[in-house]
Amino acid sequence: MPRASTQSTRSTRSTRSSHRSTLSLSRTEVKINVYDLLPPGKLASALWFVGSSLLHSGVVINGREYAYGGHARPGLSGVYWTKPGQVPPGALFQCEIIHGFTFATEAEIEATIRDVSAEFLGPSYNLLTLNCNHFTSHLVERLTGRPGPNWLNRAARIGVALPCVVPREWVQPPPAEIADGELLDEDEEQDDESSHMLATKPQQNSISR
């Protein structure tokens, strides 16, 4: 009997150890959704072909798409979430990229998103120097160890290097810059899985990205 009891105990410990190992090896897919903000046409098609489109991007993880946009509310993050694949008004969905995987737990993922969102405040948004693609690259790097594709922000880098030759519409947020989403800083008050308007007063709630 003592021997059987010992074997049973070892078996239980082995099962628990195996369970912990399985949990530690579980991984979560990290994807990037890419949208073209220029109106459909020959110019947009040509720029997409050469990799210089004016793009918006979001990070898809655990059933939400996280992105960054600008607003005028001091101290509030510009990071918001929507349902994955929700196309901004006037924009065009271009592609979905499976960027990689993270072995972090759901709680660790949420903590990382919160940490990154604190670095991307709404009033700090700039179409050329701190935009949605900067956020995407930073977040996926924190989650997977690899930054986002270099071509995502090629148009912004051109704008910084050659401001005089960049079309004015590249610098000014196009009509697609008005977003329906849930600001991450307000997410604790409203935790509805559907997309929400950012707030109630239009003059304070338009966010550009």
Entry summary:
With 209 residues, the chain is of the alpha+beta class.
Short key terms for the protein model shown above:
209 residues; alpha+beta; endopeptidase fold (from Nostoc punctiforme); 6-stranded antiparallel sheet; PPPDE domain-containing protein
Layout of helices and strands, plus pairs?
Elements: H1 2-25, E1 28-36, H2 42-50, E2 55-61, E3 64-68, E4 79-82, E5 92-102, H3 106-117, H4 132-144, H5 154-161, H6 168-171, E6 182-183, H7 202-205
Antiparallel strand pairs: 1-2, 1-5, 2-3, 3-4, 4-6
What does the model show?
Residues 1-22, 176-209 are annotated as: Disordered. One of its GO terms (biological process) is protein deubiquitination. This is PPPDE domain-containing protein. This protein has one domain (26-205): Alpha-Beta Complex (endopeptidase fold (from Nostoc punctiforme)). Strands 5-1-2-3-4-6 form a 6-stranded antiparallel β-sheet, with helices on one face. It has helices spanning 2-25, 42-50, 106-117, 132-144, 154-161, 168-171, 202-205, and strands spanning 28-36, 55-61, 64-68, 79-82, 92-102, 182-183. The termini are far apart. 35% of the residues lie in helices and 18% in strands. It has 209 residues and is α+β, with helices and mostly antiparallel strands.
